[in-house]
Amino acid sequence: MLKLNMMRFELATPTYLPDQPPSIRFLKNTVVVERWWQVPLSKEGRPPRLYPRRHRVYKVVEDTKHAPKEKMELILSQTVAKLGGRGDTVFVKKSVGRNNLLAQGLAVYPSPENKAMFAEELRLLHEGRPEERIQTRTGQLTVEILKHMELKVEKRTSIEYDITKEMVCRQILQKRGIFVPPHALRLPEESIKDLGDYWCEVTVNGIDTVRIPMSVVPFEDPTATGRKLLKRKKQEETVAAAVQEAATVPEATIPEATQEKDKEPHD
Predict the structure, then answer these.
(1) Is there a smaller number of Cβ atoms within 10 Å at the N or the C end of the chain?
(2) Member of which family (predicted)?
(3) How would DSSP label each residue in the chain?
(4) What is the pLDDT of residues 16-54, one digit of tens each?
(5) What are the tens digits of pLDDT across the range 142-199?
(6) Given its phi and psi angles, is residue 213 left (phi above 0), alpha (psi -120 to 50 degrees) or beta?
(7) What is each CA distance from 139 to 65, 201, 202, 209, in whole angstroms?
């Protein structure tokens, strides 16, 4: 009786696909249910008594039709946007894996041979010669970002100092969110002390090098006090420039007749 009370039923709901022949177009979607009310004990040798209404009420235990589908594991053989780069292991829907990635040659199955091949490529990436290395997906994205980047480095004009690699690395991290170690950054040989346009080179994973235009501009304090001081300084510079311009204007020439008249003695 306990087995009867815990009985589960499997209901198959057919799904028909018109494009396929009848022999293979039936897909079984199983729904596992069990009785809500237990079946009472019956006398020995007699079948259990089932009530028509009560014992036809079921509760769902498992719905395989609407359950989350298992995803397919693949290894990318080429760089795929929004998925990863060559050698990355991804989990995608089976339809996407079969119809897109595998059909177009963008991925392969994670067989032991394929895993060993991509593991060897990864080893060469870290230990091999520069000409044998392959850029990673994140490295490719970083290179694309750096190619379209224009860096501005702020410098305090009131203090004399040189722009160092650490300062440039901090500026790249703050403004673009890209961490650049100092050994991967190259600056011009001459020291950078004055404001102006310069350049810097960033090497990504020791493979690709990107030259970035860099401008050294005056430092601007973002606080309210700093903005007031900057505004006052600009006003003082404007006034000083106006005074200097007025001082350099040549004096108006006096006509010679007027000068001779002034020289005549007065009675």
Answers:
(1) C
(2) Belongs to the bacterial ribosomal protein bL9 family.
(3) -HHHHT-EEEEEEEE--TTS-TTT--EEEEEEEEESSPPPP--TTSPPP--TTGGG-EEEEEETTTSPPPPEEEEESS-BTTTB-TT-EEEE-HHHIIIIIITTTSEE---HHHHHHHHHHHHHHHHS-GGG----HHHHHHHHHHHT--EEEEE-TTS-----HHHHHHHHHHHH-----GGGEE--SS---SSEEEEEEEEETTTEEEEEEEEEEE----SHHHHHHHHHHHHHHHHHHHHHHHHTSPPPPPPHHHHHHHHSPP-
(4) 445 555 444 445 677 888 888 888 888 888 888 888 888
(5) 898 999 988 888 888 778 888 889 999 998 998 888 899 999 999 998 888 888 899 9
(6) beta
(7) 41, 15, 12, 11
Strand-pairing partners, residue 201, are 186, 211
CATH class of 72-132: alpha beta
**What CATH number was assigned to the domain covering residues 142-218?**
3.10.430.100
Q: Where are the domains of the chain?
A: 2-63, 72-132, 142-218
What residue has token string 């990355």?
88
